[in-house]
Amino acid sequence: MLKLTDVIRRPLITEKTSILREDGRTIVFHVASSANKTQIKRAIEQLLGSKVDSIRTSIAHGKMKRQGRYAGRRPDWKKAYVKLREGAKMPEFLEGA
Length: 97
Description:
It is a single chain. Helices cover 25% and strands 36% of the residues. The protein is of the alpha+beta class and 97 residues long. Strand 4 (64-67) and strand 5 form a beta hairpin. 15% of the residues are buried.
């Protein structure tokens, strides 16, 4: 069983997610790979106090990286596109970003 703070790792702040956030309702999070949509929804509603409308998840595959002749692979990770309900407030930590 994952704790609420383990489900959501951190918000993803990139150029693409900033454009999505402009509509005022979508936020993107880096989440635990084992977390499902129900756990993500529960964690966001309790931690942020905003009602969730819908969630889309996707697996981002880790890139190949090399250090000299040694090649390695970064781990795969999961991201969640969280759409808040109409009129729900945006969390404060994203306002200034």
